[in-house]
């Protein structure tokens, strides 16, 4: 907790300006009246700087709202209530409010460390690699009971030894990230051991009709404050190289923005979704059919200057290039 308020910092800044003004006055031997005018000028300069900062923040919010409100959504056809992910053409939004205990889960995001690959320092990330097998097709001997092995709702899960994360440059076009082997901390054992998380992962496996697949599970937080915009997605409209990607909103607190957008093209010219998803909602996207993006997040204007805003999400994905991402394509399965 900080012991300095923004008001005290501003006062200190003004006093520092006055001292500088006094030093200047002494050097140039100006009169007391001129010195007072110089102090007034210093105070006015502080006010102008504060006004400029507030105007820039307001301008960013207005620009964000204009971009979102002016987004043209393309009409398209989609099944209304898909029983499995294979019935989804582009995307579907599910209600997962009863699947997870969002109140207690959101507190665990406080432990997620910063993502060192996002220069703005606003994103936090952990990940876990899993092997998922339908029980009918899995030999029990391969899954001895332990913290890293469990059975839930017809599936056996193996939490694999922690591994790096890799995306080829044709998927991640951000300079310095595409083709880079990235190291992220593992998801906390406290999270992986939760009964609701295990049911959530089994629900994904069931909907995706997995038999024997590898799965990537991520916990991600975006943080914003008065002088920092949250970059939820740094790649712009993109695909990740999976078959299916599911994103669940765990928490939205003190923010505006973070609007989920899907486009049929990489330029974002054929938007088919422009929606601000809320806690408890899961969007399932067919990664090869759409390009996905989320707008930047800003601190809600009703928040005080010392408050922060957060957007917490879970990400689950499988298929296609996942073996390359975790390095298994270069080695035999163990």
Please summarize what this structure is.
With 334 residues, this protein is α+β, with helices and mostly antiparallel strands. 27% of the residues lie in helices and 26% in strands.
Task: Please write out the topology.
Blueprint: H1 6-28, H2 32-69, E1 91-95, H3 102-108, E2 123-134, E3 149-152, E4 155-159, E5 165-166, E6 181-182, H4 189-192, H5 195-207, E7 212-224, E8 244-253, E9 255-257, E10 260-263, E11 271-275, E12 281-286, E13 291-294, E14 297-299, E15 309-318, H6 322-325
Antiparallel strand pairs: 1-12, 2-4, 2-7, 3-4, 5-6, 7-15, 8-12, 8-15, 9-14, 10-11, 10-13
Helix pairs in contact: 1-2
Describe this structure as you would to a colleague.
The protein has 334 residues and is of the alpha+beta class. The protein contains 6 helices and 15 strands. The chain has an 8-stranded antiparallel sheet with strand order 1-12-8-15-7-2-4-3. It has a 3-stranded antiparallel sheet with strand order 11-10-13, with no helix packed on it.
Largest sheet: 8 strands, antiparallel
Strand content: 25-35%
Shape: globular
Helix proportion of residues, in percent? Answer: 25-40%
Radius of gyration: 25 Å
Mean of residue pLDDT values: 79
Strand arrangement across the biggest beta sheet: 1-12-8-15-7-2-4-3
N-to-C series of helices and strands:
HHEHEEEEEHHEEEEEEEEEH
Ends apart, CA distance between termini: 47 Å
SSE class: alpha+beta
Secondary structure tally, helices = 6
Q: Regions with pLDDT < 50 over 5+ consecutive residues?
A: 1-11, 23-33, 41-45, 47-69, 330-334
Q: How many strands in all?
A: 15
